[in-house]
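Appendix B. Raw example, untouched.
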Amino acid sequence: MEHFTFIVNKSKIKEEYSENICMIKIYLCALVTLLLSTTALVYPQESGKSLSSVDLYEKINSLYQKRDFESILKAKRIIEEKKDEWIKNSQHYALLSNIYSHILYRNWHEGQDKQDYLKSAEEYAGKAIKLGKDEYHGYKAMGNIFLIKGKISESLEMFQKATDLNQEDAELWYFYACASNGKLTDRYSLAGQRIIRTLEIEPAFLWAIEDLVMAFIIENKLNKAENIIKILIKNNPNYPHIPYYEGVLHLRKGQKKLAKEKFDEFIKLNPNVNISKILKKKMYD
């Protein structure tokens, strides 16, 4: 269950903006008071011939684009091993910033305030802007940093600069939606329009689909939530967190037996995430 994949320290955000942050983890906490965290993964060392800086960037970016936390952790490991070999330009620094930002969100979700990740992410975003003032990558990354800090006006300014330079980046529009006024489920709000734009560019964009599922469940629009889950299954059929969303939907419908079956399926597919342990405790203790 990714970002939201992104989670924001809500205490830092002005009250009038708090409802606009579209991070799925906030919805999850509000709905079932369950926290998701992933155990640290150990990956085998890569072997074989050395990769060029272009190949390293493509490999790291492809892992990040999968949007699941395990892949992003693997990208981070490669970064730490090969950082001096591949970071060459604005786009590279921006990717580095986004990866550290994502890990920061997850650490916050696990109750860990990892300011060193924020410091690094902000530093890399600044370098991205410095190296590419006429490129959008750095502005997107810095907008995300401002979003984390609850500096909504500054965040929106960065995203506007980025979209002035590039209209075709789904993640950029997703971040922009998260900073925007209104509900994701309201197609006439800024947030809604920008999440629609995200999915026009990349229909399988995982974080946006997850957020919409939970937003509709929170609003008790269960038929729409069910339709979005079908889209999630169609676009990401092997995503191991799908049974969780199905279970939450059944739970909201009062179908406890069906919810338990889906949660059991989720636990089998995701034995090492803390939410599986929490579900076990709530269902069987």
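End of appendix B.
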